[in-house]
């Protein structure tokens, strides 16, 4: 496999455009893609024709407007290029500028939060020229935005593009105030680490909970989990390695620079990380990565699990959002340089993050909220549901010194020497890493570790871009009115540390001391997703999104309703699946097993023996089955009561509390029974089967 030959062959990228488009058309489209200029409608027919010809050469017979509705998945209907020309039965292959630019989907069939009623069905998809089209499975996929007939955003992409526009406008304004007249655009850059599990598909197919819910609702702790730390970055198993090679090939062909692959901490857990790219393309690529993982894994007899917590008692899966800001002149605004203590522009941008994250910590927590993440956050290397920023002691000290009116000391980089002459020395990083922090500075970027593995990246990007736009706006106002810009930067740093230093925490985020300290500092602690969702309708947050034209108040309210509804449905489906498994699999299987023990006990007793321990075992199993039946009835009763709540927020709280508690009680009893029932009689593969048999 020659990577250079296959990379991007299925993408209508810059190289393909340059080759196939007239120079005037190419330059016009390039300006739209690079600078965000309005698309010249006169070039659309030429682009559509070239795109169609290229796609047909790639084996495409159909095209599809590919969009991202508010359900963490992608969608699109497929139309053939084929068109009949008359009574003679001849056909032609057509793709017009109208078909490229505008499509229509039934908007009432997707989550809308009341923006669309069933009788108001029209929704539009419109071409996003900043993200390249690609061919997959015989279809030309055209990345698009999705909006209602009235123009409201019904997708993840539209608000993302709006937020990118906002942070660019305000960021350029800030740089202008600093005297930079060359930068014309600020570009959010993202590198998304994707964690996932792989299990044998035949075993997966025997687990109704995995198939329906994506996670195990039952499962006793295996004898061996991740206690030996022998899986992380260890030898990749043959089947997994073959899957990874196939996955890389498919992603490379679609122009996705899949770069890093390794085993993660938990058995059967792995990670893929692509190179950085522009935020909207990174979000598109991450959706493609997840879709490709699911399809390629099946070809290798594996099932890819993207749930945040598919197995209890081992690590869950996240999607680490590595975020930086670059200018169109190639400068990373989060690069400290050799002497960060003298790099006032870097320190100013750092303060913009401190201010934004502190003022809108609730929104950042909301952006990573979902039912699956409720099981993951707060342990096993996942950050707790308390937003804080890790800067490291050196950067924190620099900001403190400036805020106190003194000069920060220059850091002397240390050399690492491991004590073996043959091993070369190297420079240590300025600070250690903090794997427990939800939002950590890692040298030239921030890593937001809270996003769940199944979630769209777009939501966290929307929040980050918007809160930074707000900080840039406020800082630019001050600098534009200042007589001395350098002195004003120092005053901004001083004010930021005075008002927002509480968001900095460089310690162990898992400790109980931090929870108590966070409460003392007044930081929001939103343990459940239901509470996190509610921040979307906080007046200050509605005003923020409206001010920067990211969400209208109506769109904010709609997203709040959609998130609550999805949360309720997920738990409802999990509870219903749990009831089905308990009633139709576990209870009948264990009754059958009890019958076998009773028969054996009868035969042994008939021989004149009195096997007390066998009698005790039978009683334990029987009592457990009785208890499980009672707990099943209890869960069913509690679940049925959930329909009595008319207020979605109260219902979501009830689902997160009473329903999940009842599910936990039923699971605990079933998991205990699993450990004493004959493996042949247990009705589903165990954790040992799933985690250790690939």
What's the gist of this structure?
With 694 residues, this protein is of the alpha+beta class.
Verbal overview:
This protein has 694 residues and is an alpha+beta fold. It has three domains: 3-155, Roll (Ubiquitin-like (UB roll)); 163-411 and 426-551, Creatine Kinase, Chain A, domain 2 (2-Layer Sandwich); 567-692, Four Helix Bundle (Hemerythrin (Met), subunit A) (Up-down Bundle), CATH 1.20.120.1560. 48% of the residues lie in helices and 13% in strands. The protein has 23 helices and 19 strands. Helix 20 (553-606) packs parallel to helix 22 (648-674). The longest helix has 54 residues, at 553-606.
Tally of distinct domains: 3
Mean pLDDT: 91
Number of strands: 19
Globular, elongated, flat, extended or rod-shaped: what is the shape?
globular
Q: What would CATH call the homologous superfamily of the largest domain? A: Glutamine synthetase/guanido kinase, catalytic domain
N-C termini distance: 26 Å
Q: In DSSP terms, counting alpha (H) and pi (I) runs of 4 or more, how many helices?
A: 23
Q: Which class do the helix and strand fractions yield?
A: alpha+beta
What is the helix fraction of residues, given as a range?
40-55%
The percentage of residues in β strands lies in 5-15%
Write down the oligomeric state. Answer: single chain
Radius of gyration: 28 Å
CATH class wording of the largest domain: Alpha Beta
Looking at the overall shape, the CATH architecture of the largest domain is 2-Layer Sandwich
Low-pLDDT runs of 5+ residues are: none
Major sheet: 9 strands, mixed
């Amino acid at each position: 496999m020659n990577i250079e030959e296959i990379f991007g062959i299925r993408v209508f990228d810059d190289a393909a455009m340059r080759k196939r488009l007239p120079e005037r058309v190419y330059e016009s489209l390039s300006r739209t893609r690079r600078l965000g200029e309005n698309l010249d409608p006169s070039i659309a027919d030429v682009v559509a024709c070239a795109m169609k010809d290229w796609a047909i050469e790639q084996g495409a017979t159909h095209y599809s407007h590919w969009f991202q509705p508010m359900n963490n998945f992608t969608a699109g209907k497929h139309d053939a290029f084929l068109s009949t020309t008359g009574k003679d039965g001849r056909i032609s292959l057509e793709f017009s500028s109208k078909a490229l630019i505008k499509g229509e989907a039934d908007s009432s069939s997707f989550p809308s939060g009341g923006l669309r009623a069933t009788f108001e069905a029209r929704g539009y998809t419109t071409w996003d020229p900043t993200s390249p089209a690609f061919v997959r499975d015989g279809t030309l996929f055209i990345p698009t935005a999705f909006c209602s007939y009235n123009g409201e955003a019904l997708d993840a992409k539209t608000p993302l593009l709006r937020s990118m526009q906002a942070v660019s406008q305000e960021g350029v304004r800030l740089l202008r105030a600093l005297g930079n007249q060359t930068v014309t655009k600020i570009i959010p850059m993202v590198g998304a680490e994707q964690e996932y599990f792989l299990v044998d598909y035949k075993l997966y197919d025997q687990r109704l909970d995995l198939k329906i819910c994506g996670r195990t609702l039952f499962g006793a702790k295996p004898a061996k989990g991740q206690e030996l730390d022998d899986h992380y970055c260890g030898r990749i198993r043959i089947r997994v390695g073959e899957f990874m090679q196939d996955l890389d090939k498919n992603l490379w062909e679609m122009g996705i620079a899949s770069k890093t692959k390794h085993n993660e901490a938990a058995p059967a857990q792995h990670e893929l990380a692509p190179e950085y790219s522009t935020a909207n393309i990174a979000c598109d690529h991450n959706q493609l990565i997840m879709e490709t993982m699911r399809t390629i894994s099946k070809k290798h007899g594996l099932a890819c699990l993207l749930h945040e917590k598919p197995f209890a008692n081992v690590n869950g899966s996240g999607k680490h959002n590595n975020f930086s800001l670059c200018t169109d002149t190639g400068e990373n605004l989060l690069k400290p340089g050799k002497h960060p203590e003298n790099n006032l522009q870097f320190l100013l941008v750092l303060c913009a993050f401190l201010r934004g994250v502190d003022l809108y910590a609730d929104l950042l927590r909301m952006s990573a909220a979902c039912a699956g993440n409720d099981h993951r956050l707060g342990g096993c290397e996942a950050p707790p549901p308390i937003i804080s920023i890790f800067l490291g002691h050196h950067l924190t000290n620099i900001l403190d010194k400036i805020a106190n009116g003194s000069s920060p000391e220059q850091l002397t980089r240390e050399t690492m020497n491991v004590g073996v002459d043959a091993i070369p020395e190297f420079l240590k990083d300025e600070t250690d890493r903090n794997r427990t922090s939800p939002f950590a500075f890692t040298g030239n970027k921030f890593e937001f570790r809270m996003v769940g593995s199944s979630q769209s990246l777009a939501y966290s990007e929307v929040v980050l871009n918007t809160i930074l736009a707000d900080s840039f706006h406020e800082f630019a106002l001050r600098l534009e009115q200042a007589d001395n810009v350098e002195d004003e930067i120092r005053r901004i740093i001083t004010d930021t540390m005075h008002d927002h230093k509480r968001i900095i925490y460089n310690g162990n985020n898992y400790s109980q001391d931090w929870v108590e300290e966070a409460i003392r500092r007044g930081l929001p602690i939103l343990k459940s997703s239901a509470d996190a969702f509610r921040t979307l309708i906080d007046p200050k947050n509605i005003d923020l999104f409206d001010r920067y034209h990211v969400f209208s108040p109506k769109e904010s309210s709609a997203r709040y309703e959609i998130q609550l509804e999805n949360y309720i449905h997920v738990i409802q489906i999990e509870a219903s699946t749990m009831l089905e498994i308990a009633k139709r699999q576990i209870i009948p299987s264990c009754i059958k097993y009890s019958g076998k023990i009773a028969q054996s006990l009868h035969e042994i007793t008939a021989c004149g023996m009195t096997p007390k321990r066998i009698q005790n075992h039978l009683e334990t199993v029987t009592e457990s089955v009785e208890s499980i039946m009672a707990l099943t009835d209890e869960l069913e009763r509690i679940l049925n009561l959930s329909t009595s709540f008319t207020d979605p927020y109260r219902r979501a709280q009830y689902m997160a509390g009473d329903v999940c508690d009842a599910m936990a009680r039923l699971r605990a009893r079933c998991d205990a029974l699993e450990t004493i029932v004959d493996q042949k009689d247990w009705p589903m593969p165990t954790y040992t089967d799933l985690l250790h048999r690939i």
